[in-house]
Amino acid sequence: MKRVFSVALALLASASLAACATTTAKPAPGKSQTASNGGGGPPPAPLPKGLDPAANKDPFPSTYRPLPGRDVALVGATVLTGTGAQIENGTVLIKAGRIAAVGQGLAVPAGYETVDARGKWITPGLIDTHSHLGVYPSPEVQAHSDGNEAIDPNTAQVWAEHSVWPQDPGFNLARAGGVTTLLVLPGSANLFGGRGVTLRNVPGRTVQDMKFPGAPYTLKMACGENPKRVYGGKGRSPATRMGNVAGYRAAWINAADYMRKWDDYRAKVARGDKADPPKRDLQLDTLVGVLKGEILVENHCYRADEMAQMIDISKEFGYRITAFHHTVEAYKIADLLAKNDICAATWTNWWGSKLEMNDSVEANVPLVEAAGGCAIIKSDDPDLIQRLNQEAAEAMAAGRALGMPITEAQAIRWITANPAKALGIAAEVGTLEPGKRGDVTLWDGNPFSIYTRAQRVWIDGGLAYDRTDPRFQAKSDFELGQESRR
Known about the structure:
The protein has helices spanning 2-22, 169-176, 225-232, 241-271, 282-291, 304-317, 334-339, 364-370, 388-401, 408-411, 417-422, 477-484; strands spanning 72-80, 86-95, 98-104, 113-116, 121-124, 126-131, 179-184, 192-200, 218-222, 296-301, 321-326, 343-346, 375-377, 440-443, 454-459, 462-466.
């Protein structure tokens, strides 16, 4: 029996060895069947949630939902399309929240609500590229002062949307002025002030309810007097304009190095090598987003010489400036701005509040346009945002006084199409063209008259404001609460 048992064991051992020679054991769950790091071990584990800046570039996603609406035909108006055209006896058709057609004397399809717009004017919804609504809301008290994180020259890590108070009454007042989209920016105390947020001007419980879906993020930067005054006054750098420039350059060097470290880490992982990831840095995440062309630079800068220096810095580090803001001396370098495809967002007659504003001229915007540039009228003010059309009218009149034959069809672009370009949303809004969002303002007269007011405002085809119907004159919870206490 012992011999038989020994033979059986030998046969089993032989069979087992043969099996090992011709089969491969199944890998344990989560293990790779092939060598992935040059040493036959498992692939690197994914980084813990929140530690990889590329894993979720939109951690605060839009929850925006269009207002309820119906198909609408606005008939018989003078239409400024924002493309440079003016249409008399024009018809604008809005279907399913989008512009369906624009033209002269169009037939109204069955099922459309018809609005008699004879004697009135129609424009795209107005767009403000520089607002502080929500971050400096009304009432203007210290408890609401949330626009400047003035603790360090570089606060690129902060996001304006985390300060926006959606109950700010200014949003409703801006809507009554025809404004349908706005960029809310941090203030200008810092060289790098943080990210801005583009909003649809609709009532919302949260800022995310107002957030423009798919709009690119922006980075607010600031030149000149503000940063050097704020930090020089604290006995810190920058205290001079040369300190400002050194601060920009140092920040971009750090950002480029941070980007290189992440690129190196990802290359090693792709090769299957072991690698330790860099520590995530929220400030540098934003700056790297700029270097990669994902985040747009909106640069506060008044003087022409400083704008030229900022253009040089952008070329040194390989990013582009989308728009200069305030830029009262844009007319001095209008050709340079046009050559570099940089928009100039400014006012018409604001000047003199500080020395760097002294060389402002009322014809700044038309002079930028005459050079082939992207000229924009913006607010930076809770009152002016209600009257962007009047500010544009003043600029148009100043240009005409210099002999420039500027038409209303051209000037409307300063508060519609050009701002859309500066915010990276021109494919969606800014002009009345088929397929674009149904953002439309109906005026009771020529919008470049001081006597004209917005009569109705549609956002994504939903009626957002009607001057004659209280049902479409939204009030925030804050306003209702104040009324109940009177």
